[in-house]
Amino acid sequence: MLRQLARRVLLLLAGLAVIGGILYAAGLRIVQYGGGGLGFAFTKTLEKRAAEIEKHREAQRAPATAEKSAPAVVRASPYWTSFRGSDRDGHYRQRPVRTDWGSALTPLWKQPVGGGFASFVVAEGLAFTIEQRGVREVAAAYDLVTGRERWTSAWDALFQENGDGPRATPAWHDGRLYVLGATGEFRALDAATGRTLWRTDILADAGAANLEFGTSASPLVVDNTVVVLPGGANGQSVVAYDRQSGTRVWGALDDRASYSSPVLVTLAGVRQILTFTATRLVGLSPENGTLLWEVPWRTANQASQPLITGPDRVFISTATDAAMLQLTAGAGGQLAARELWRTNRMNNNFSSSVLHDGFIYGLDGTILACIDASTGELKWKGGRYGSGQIILASGHLIVLTEQGELALVRADPTAHQEITRFPAIEGKTWNHPAMSDGILLIRNIEEMAAFDLAKSTK
What pTM did the predictor assign? Predict the structure, then answer.
């Protein structure tokens, strides 16, 4: 009896092993989601995904391909030119947007994209991103209205951790695109053609080791420089390069880098670069990187962005804690920060919060929440969106969920009011949405899509 039972168990295990092998060969893998959750998903090899994208782009370039009709788009001055918008605050202010989505929106276009967690920037009718195709990182420009690929610029690089590919969103300024790969490759490209104007390796320059999850901070254009975070010692943690020539202008601090991106702000009347390192939040002089003030803020994987909530106030959050800081200038002009309040009711993981009419909206873990910016008091919490991303537009929150859904939620402190939610793209989605000229752009590690949200002015 025992022998028969053992034989059946062995046969069952053998059968499961065969089935598992078949599923593995078919691409079934364990996928890590935000917050450490695990799941199963079918994936494709780098080579197969790259081949499918190239096949799609070849068909797109074919002379016989007729571009489908698309709405006329006012080609305004460049607007969404940096990570989370030109002010890096996730707020779209260019024009009113539609909030009458119905049950779903029809995309202007949808197509495959290479791997990676970068977002888009938009300027002069083109949407730019950086993606993984095979064993190469690829900067690409797409027509905003049609999705047609206009140019690509590629180099050999492959970073693999929780997904393949680059993580840092490019930056556009004055006809140039600044792109940073996950292994430190940094290039200035002609935004019209993709031609390389200069290049460097920021990790090699700074003598810095890469982070566990790759170089992720988006480059920041400040005056005649572009600022990056290699995280090197001996004054090489934060580095500014001349944006025209690529020569090093200044370096500052000795800290390991974080995954959060620097932002140019004015606090307490002082213009400064605000950025997280692995152990603190700092304000730096844009002219030479001089440390203006600091607050200890130690976290293993700081990825969320600081949020300016007033002339002298900045909200910061991590996966375990959040606080409101007030910056003041002393008698000698020395800046100092003090904590006004602290809460564990708005813990941003690698999403970032937005501000609307005195209230902060963001993902507390995986659940959307609203807190009072003056007190930190929780107003409401509701709706599960995974490790998604948020932008604010026309008094509404546009949420791109970790599952690739788009949701529209009223930015109302009285209650969580989700208007609609629908599947938009397939695949794990950690990439931040972008919007310009009323067109919403989304992408993840597999697909990219555009939706026309421009509100008619007739």
Answer: 0.91
> Which 3 state secondary structure label does DSSP give 339?
strand
Q: Please tell me whether residue 206 adopts helix, strand or coil conformation.
A: helix
| Token couple for 7 | 């034989």
What is the Cα–Cα distance from 26 to 44, expressed in whole angstroms? 8
Q: How far apart are the first and last CA of the chain?
A: 82
Could you state, in order of their start, the residue ranges of all structural domains in the chain?
Answer: 20-452
Alpha-carbon span 327 to 266, nearest angstrom: 11
CB-based contact 109:450 (threshold 8 Å): yes
Check residue 195 and give left, alpha or beta (phi > 0: left; psi -120 to 50: alpha).
beta
> Residue 87 phi/psi, 5° resolution?
-95, 0
CB 430 within 8 A of CB 400: no
pLDDT of residue 415: 98
Contact 167, 183 (CB under 8 A): no
* Contact between residue 262 and residue 255 where contact means Cβ atoms under 8 Å apart: no
pLDDT at res. 34: 64
CB burial class (10 A; 0-12, 13-18, 19+) of residue 414? exposed
Helices (H), 392-431: none
Task: Kindly give the residue spans of alpha helices, DSSP state H, lying in 38-112.
Answer: 46-61
pLDDT of residue 20: 47
Q: Which fold has domain 20-452?
A: Methylamine Dehydrogenase; Chain H (2.130.10)
pLDDT band at 13 (very low <50, low <70, confident <90, very high): low
CA dist 163 to 111, 209, 350, 390, Å?
A: 19, 20, 15, 21
pLDDT tens string 199-244 = 999 999 999 999 999 999 999 999 999 999 999 999 999 999 999 9
Residues 114 and 153: beta-carbon distance below 8 Å:
no
- pLDDT tens figures, 134-180: 999 999 999 999 999 999 999 999 999 988 999 999 999 999 999 99
